[in-house]
Amino acid sequence: xxxxxxxxxxxxxxxxxxxxxxxxxxxxxxxxxxxxxxxMGVETPSRLVDITRLDLAKVEELPDGxxxxxxxxxxxxxxxxxxxxxxxxxxxxxxxxxxxxPQLRNMATTGGNLLQRTRCYYxxxxxxxQCNKRVPGSGCxxxxxxxxxxxxxxQSEACIATHPSDMCVAMAALDAVVRVQGPKGEREIPFAxxxxxxxxxxxxxxxxQPDEIITAVDLPAAPWAKTSHYLKVRDRASxxxxxxxxxxxxxxxxxxxxxxxVALGGVAHKPWRSKEAEETLVGEQPGEAIFKxxxxxxxKHAKGYKYNEFKIELxxxxxxxxxxxxxxx
Amino acid sequence: xxxEHEHPSPDDDLIPDDVQSLEDSxxxxxxxxxxxxxxxxxxxxxxQWFSPIARTLxxxxxxxxxANGLPTGxxxxxxxxxxxxxxxSLEIDPRVTLLDALRERLNLTGTKKGCDHGQCGSCTVLxxxxxVNACLTLxxxxxxxxxxxxxxxxxxxxxxxxxxxxIKHDGFQCGYCTPGQICSAVACIKEGHAKDDAQIRxxxxxxxxxxxxxxxxxxxxxxxxxxxxx
Lengths: 329, 230
Ligand SMILES: Cc1cc2nc3c(=O)[nH]c(=O)nc-3n(C[C@H](O)[C@H](O)[C@H](O)COP(=O)(O)OP(=O)(O)OC[C@H]3O[C@@H](n4cnc5c(N)ncnc54)[C@H](O)[C@@H]3O)c2cc1C
Ligand code: SF4
Ligand code: FES
Ligand code: FES
What we know:
The complex is a heterodimer of chains A (329) and B (230).
Chain A: E1 5-8, H1 12-19, E2 25-28, H2 34-40, E3 47-50, E4 59-61, E5 67-71, H3 76-80, H4 83-88, H5 90-98, H6 102-107, H7 110-115, H8 121-124, H9 167-173, E6 177-182, E7 185-190, H10 191-194, E8 213-220, E9 228-233, E10 244-253, E11 256-265, E12 272-273, H11 275-281, H12 288-298, H13 310-328
Parallel strand pairs in A: 1-3, 2-3
Antiparallel strand pairs in A: 4-5, 5-8, 6-7, 6-8, 9-10, 10-11, 11-12
Chain B: H1 18-23, H2 30-36, E1 77-83, E2 86-92, H3 98-105, E3 124-127, E4 130-133, E5 146-148, H4 161-168, H5 178-191, H6 197-203, H7 214-227
Parallel strand pairs in B: 1-5
Antiparallel strand pairs in B: 1-2, 3-4, 3-5
Helix pairs in contact in B: 4-7, 5-7
The structure holds flavin-adenine dinucleotide, iron/sulfur cluster (SF4) and FE2/S2 (inorganic) cluster (2 copies).
């Protein structure tokens, strides 16, 4: 691990000051991704600013019934079991509980989870010389290599990595808003615009600036989210990343779907919200036939590689299963 | 310097069959890979849970190892830790994890290093009563927190009920994962996540047992749950 200096921020302003020295400085949340990547030599910050003592660990109701605000330092385990989340946004609680392990969830923060990096083998291990994300311009080891866990939607020739978060898939379905603060003040980033597709620059993963800190994630009021579900498909029953996952919500009024939400995980460089699937569902009677059509619409432009072709069919079936589970709930 | 890595890939998406495919990948530097794994066979990639145990922090960057076996290069910092009720003063490099501080500096070797990457749970300790992976926790972040390790669970000669139950139900074979399992189990029961077998299995999934002592572990946790006065 490269040497670094350690400071502990007491408030958001000191954290921002700590970041201002340039890209060599990094914020430390739970450390479950950053420390791991520092041990691997993938991340090499020379300054760590510990933000875990900041007063940003609350889950609060927004005024006028506008929804719920989640502080950036709320731990994944606390968020998963918070009554406001369990009752109003079950899909988010389920997604969090499907992620990592109880120990890691006790450590992982909301902000850190948003910024966790891909588990692409070629990215994670500098013994592989090709990775455009780690070393821009070096090529992509995965495109022609072993790509079982890689993307089938929205990828580019430069990078076919996936975003590994479960939490973020639920947040994408819930139209969350990421609140950030930087030297120029505060701003809000709609969830769909927070993570980026790889394009020519897979090293740029989000639209957060290096001198900004995430302070909170807002979940807008969403009565339809009460009937929602998170389905995760993985190699083991627990403690494994998703091969494919689906966050789904349906609001059915008078036998017809009034609101639909479908987001997929494990398939793209960002949590993949499928407007195509949602548009297919709205106005229809819920049932297997229309769920299959919606799944087809979601995966219409999917492209597989040598080892991950199976994900296309798996994702389709997962969409159908998730929607079926929602209607059964 | 991308070539100077010291670890096999810790990627937990790897399943045994993946190993060959990865080695066949283009631009895979087998030489770097093998030197990087202390000349242990690359096949260890498959045994993702228990890769070489001797991988202390110092092994990360041989150029930066001090006389005490711990890295040099960054300024050391003073740190006070409360471990098992006793205050400990340390002067440490910021890179030292809680796991390495316990094992290499404080002689509390009950807490084990399995993977050193959050993938096995053998380093589980309690921080303010919450179970965490000590291998991904920087020691400096624990200032002022109450840390409990496996050494701190018994009351004198009287074992903690979870420890006693592990013995009674054969909750281990080699015992390497056991300190982590027991710390995790103590928290699992306290959290109220030990309702039935299925819930125990799910909420103990962050602790891998290479010997497969899972049935004994589940039975031990059920007994401790029912007898615990806490
Ligand atoms: C073995 C293992 C298994 C896992 N399995 C899963 C899984 O199944 N599903 C899943 O979703 N995840 C899984 N994870 C990943 C885990 O969820 C993430 O590592 C975690 O959410 C990251 O949060 P953190 O607080 O620890 O982030 P850190 O490691 O502290 O930080 C990550 C990044 O975010 C930055 N950062 C942190 N907070 C802020 C902030 N407020 N503002 C700006 N930048 C910030 C840091 O600088 C760093 O770059 C797993 C991890 C491990 C090690
Ligand atoms: S898929 Fe992306 S992260 Fe993986 S090797 Fe290719 S460029 Fe790197
Ligand atoms: S040593 Fe394996 S999780 Fe910490
Ligand atoms: S690893 Fe041997 S007893 Fe669990």
